[in-house]
Amino acid sequence: MRRDAWWVPPLGVFAVLSSFLAYATWAAFQNANYEYGNYLSPFYSPLIFGPPPHGWFAHAPRWLAAISPALLILPFPAGFRFTCYYYRGAYYKAFWADPPSCAVGEPRNTYLGEKKLPLILQNVHRYFLYFALLFLLILGHDAWQGYRFTDASGATHFGIGVGSLVLTLNVCLLGGYTLGCHSLRHLVGGYLDRFAGRPARKTAYDCVSCLNRGHMNWAWASLFWVAFTDVYVRMCAMGIWHDWRIL
Predict the structure, then answer these.
(1) Signed CA dihedral, 79, 96, 11, 212: sign only
(2) By CB distance 3.0 to 4.6 Å, which of 32, 132, 195, 241 could disulfide with 80?
(3) What is the pLDDT of residues 81-126, one digit of tens each?
(4) Using CA atoms, how far apart are residues 116 and 216, in angstroms rounded to an integer?
(5) Which of 79, 61, 22 is nearest to 227 (CA)?
(6) What is the C-alpha separation between 207 and 180, in angstroms, rounded?
(7) How many CB atoms lie within 10 A of CB 89?
(8) Does the predicted model carry a pTM greater than 0.90?
């Protein structure tokens, strides 16, 4: 009985998430053009096996040599987003019509919730959070490396390029999304009945709650920017774009 364009939001979510999944899958299997000088694509970070300055180990075991480095690490940030409380609500509507929108009928007669397979696996979100926090530190280090340029003599010096700012903004947006996670909010104090006598927990809870109020905006902004960051590094590596040095 809804006469408004209720189908527009789920259709938009379907289009955006499908486009991101298609691009991320393509980029992960390319296994090329993910480094440009001191810039490293977030899709390939951390670069466990690869040459310096980004690689942790110079050579991969023979059985891993032919596998794209992105395939070793992308399952962790992907798992964090896939099980995210906000994204669940978004793609349940857009992909499964469960339900497609408020007060709109869904193509099933029973409701099973998240108590049985496969949806019970959504409960691992709290564990993916720990990996996401670790990746945030790694990407922060990558952003710092984006300000360290090597000249022709091999000396490293501080500088600012457009890519430096792209990598930095990527960490900021991912930080806003990750640190506003519902699971982190519960972890720092959401399970407490009262904060009296616990000022540190109260401050942490208020900070996470502040970010959590804009969780949807952080989720979409960080999703777009992490893809753009890969595009920027890839275009520079291919010689299509030129990284403009600001300082």
Answers:
(1) negative
(2) 132
(3) 999 999 999 999 999 888 899 888 888 777 777 888 888 899 999 9
(4) 27
(5) 22
(6) 8
(7) 13
(8) yes
